[in-house]
Write a structure and sequence with these properties.
With about 400 residues, the protein is of the alpha+beta class. The chain has one domain. It is built from 13 helices and ten strands. The protein has a four-stranded antiparallel beta sheet with strand order 1-2-6-3, sandwiched between helices. The longest helix has 25 residues. The protein starts with about 25 loop residues before the first helix and ends in a 47-residue tail after the last strand.
Length: about 400
């Protein structure tokens, strides 16, 4: 990461008018409240628990969640006043705890949710964030289609490791006498995507509301620790991803529900981005009948590589020679990246159905579809911004507004 170009501002344009959003506007929350219909409401309740390995992860994560918020010691420890030394110390701690990539940034107010799940106002209480990425595991993903019966567990393994690391780091800062809070998949008061970009860990991609790291691609989960301990911050990075994603349509081509845009960037909630169809994505992931979730875009992304020498050469070309992008994208398909390596499959395909553990009736045995091209007519996608968000304390279903023709 030290070799990647640093810039003053994120390569995704972020305006001064980014609204703060309530947790109730999150589409998994909207599914749980019935906003997307009764089927989605039923399926989201079994989203984690329909696979036994996910259940095992979930029990451990639930035991960690109460530890994310603690009271700082009254006396502050005699630590160095040099801000860079403080940041390097905490990054080294995260690496010691098995984090893969770490960065530090200031937390803008818009990165805090406006209200929690009960509709209570969230005050932005900490100025700094330690942002941590956890690899979901290349070898397992190499054997998977990306939306079969291991995709959910890949996520939860990384979420669990992130929760462990983040909660330990927050607890350590509390021991030193500083306020700190871990923000995990189970309980987060902050939006992770802008913080990942601001901490210099990646750029926003065509996948939409997904950041790509130059070495992990989109194959990671994040955890954030906010604190009032003053720290030296990192700058955003630029590895020419915007130009690459402008040419590469592989994630859009391979997306099962067609939720990823083939088109140009748009302005949404103060960000200039390739806006995905969040409703289509959520519906598919929550009610996937042939898998435990979906990470197909992660699977097929050309940046999803194991980091071997030959891949580093490709990365160097992608970063430094934009004219090579079309060749690299063609080569990615030609070499079969995104195909399943079935010899690496180790997991059992199992599903809980009506209180009984059974073999699923089907699994998404997907491979590449290079013949699929952009549709002649751009798909009409409805954007759900702050004006369409349910009230922060809404308990009853708030149906989505109908799409305009």
């Amino acid at each position: 990461m030290e070799a990647i170009k640093r810039v003053e501002e994120t390569t995704t344009r972020i305006t001064d008018s980014v609204p703060r959003m309530p947790k109730r506007s999150n589409f998994f929350s909207r599914s749980a409240h019935g906003d997307l219909g009764k089927k989605q409401q039923t399926e989201v309740r079994r989203f984690v628990g329909k696979m036994p390995l996910n259940n095992a992860f979930g029990r451990v994560m639930r035991s960690i969640t109460p530890l994310q918020r603690n009271v700082a010691q009254a006396d502050k420890a005699p630590i160095p006043t040099d801000l860079t030394e403080r940041s390097e110390h905490l990054k080294s701690l995260c690496t010691f705890l098995d984090a893969d990539v770490v960065g530090v940034c200031e937390v803008p107010d818009y990165a805090w949710y406006s209200h929690d799940g009960e509709g209570i106002v969230i005050d932005p209480i900490h100025r700094y964030a330690i942002v941590i990425l956890i690899d979901q595991g290349y070898e397992t993903l190499a054997a998977a289609s990306g939306d079969d019966w291991i995709s959910g567990s890949q996520s939860y393994r990384a979420y669990l490791r992130g929760a462990e690391i983040g909660t330990v780091v927050a607890g350590y800062l509390n021991e030193l006498g500083y306020e700190a809070q871990a923000h995990t998949n189970s309980d987060s008061d902050v939006l992770h995507v802008p913080l990942i970009m601001l901490a210099g860990l990646g750029e926003l991609s065509r996948i939409g509301e997904v950041v790509i790291n130059p070495f992990l691609g989109p194959r990671f989960k994040s955890v954030v620790v906010t604190t009032n301990l003053e720290l030296a911050v990192d700058k955003p990075i630029d590895f020419n991803l915007q130009k690459f994603c402008d040419s590469c349509l592989k994630c859009a081509r391979e997306c099962p529900p067609g939720a990823i845009s083939f088109g140009d960037k748009v302005m949404f909630n103060g960000y200039e981005m390739w806006k995905p169809d969040v409703v289509a994505c959520t519906r598919y992931r929550v009610s996937n009948p042939a898998g435990s979730s979906c990470g197909r875009c992660m699977k097929v992304c050309p940046y999803n590589k194991p980091g071997l020498l030959q891949q580093r050469l490709g990365l160097w070309l992608a970063v430094n020679v934009p004219a090579s992008h079309k060749l690299l994208i063609w080569l990615d398909d030609a070499l079969g990246y995104g195909q399943r390596i079935t010899a690496l499959k180790w997991w059992f395909d199992l599903e809980w159905v009506n209180g009984k553990l059974v073999r699923p009736k089907k699994s998404n045995a997907r491979d590449l579809r290079p013949e699929r091209t952009a549709p002649k007519k751009t798909k009409n996608v409805t954007f759900y911004g702050i004006d369409d968000a349910p009230a922060p304390d809404a308990k009853d279903p708030v149906p989505l507004r109908k799409k305009k023709s």
